[in-house]
Request: fold
Amino acid sequence: MRLNRRNAEIMAYRAPVEDIIFTLKHAAGFAKARADGFYQDLGDDDLDIVLGEASRFASEVLAPLNAPGDRYGTPFRDGDVTMPLGWKEAYRDWAAAGWNGVAAPTAWGGQGLPHAVNAACIEMWNSAAMAFGLGPVPATTCEPAKSAPLAGCGRLPSTCPHG
Reply:
């Protein structure tokens, strides 16, 4: 725990990325799968980099938004939903970095990584800020996403004008 300027406790989050990487490589069988010819484009360094960056985003961007987001909520006034300070920018940066397509096919603009890697990323983001982690879930209902599945309209699903 750390203290903020008002001496109130704030939660710090550090993803257990080393444990996650070890588990994927050894317990989940990535090493054996690669030896059997799967995931040939995914080397150990690639896995370390992808999960390290997902961890950094969770710890440095999402975790600091968690408590303020809980306090502020998402008020609905005059037909508009107002997101907590910093959430719009975090979502924009998350999507721009390609995190919305970790396991999606490259033909759709995704990274084409194994679903287990996506699950590991989601675990870190949900642990850092559950409300943020749940936000993108209904993103595929966005009308522009029907023609370009990972594009959407760039807005948080709760504020998307397309559905």
